[in-house]
Amino acid sequence: MTYWLLLCACTLTCLGQIAQKLAVESWRGIDSPVASKLLTPWLWAALACLGLGLLLWLLVLQRLEVGIAYPMLSLNFVLVTLVSRFVFKEVVDARHWLGVAVVMGGVVLLGWQA
Questions:
Q1: Model confidence, pTM
Q2: 24 pLDDT more than 60
Q3: Which residues contact 9 (CB under 8 A, 6 or more apart)?
């Protein structure tokens, strides 16, 4: 159950970051006041995802040592890289993919230790 909560917290955090990207993309080229930007649905989706992710994260911290739980959040680097490449069609070079592999290796090692 704890690792399920951790995975959900990571996923919600990743979704929140993607919604932030979509929010600022929707603002591109539009000269509008800040107040109207605050009404952007993607911004509210980002806040909701990040808020729920935070609540789940608190539950995770009740169940896991922070030394084990916190490094698992680095899975967000992997998820965001995959989304940036395959959803936003951004260029991800070999060095970046190597970094993703190293992060995944670290997560496996830390998870194995638990």
A1: 0.80
A2: yes
A3: 53, 56, 57, 60, 73
- How far is residue 65 from each of residues 1, 70, 74, 111, 114, measured CA to CA in Å? 15, 8, 16, 12, 9
CA–CA gap between residue 72 and residue 23 (Å, rounded): 26
Total of domains in the chain: 1
Query: What amino acid occupies position 83?
Result: V
Q: Is the pLDDT of residue 83 over 80?
A: yes
User: What DSSP assignment string belongs to 49-65?
Assistant: HHHHHHHHHHHHHHHS-
Q: Which domain holds residue 36?
A: 2-113
77, with CB counted inside 10 A (0-12, 13-18, 19+), is: middle
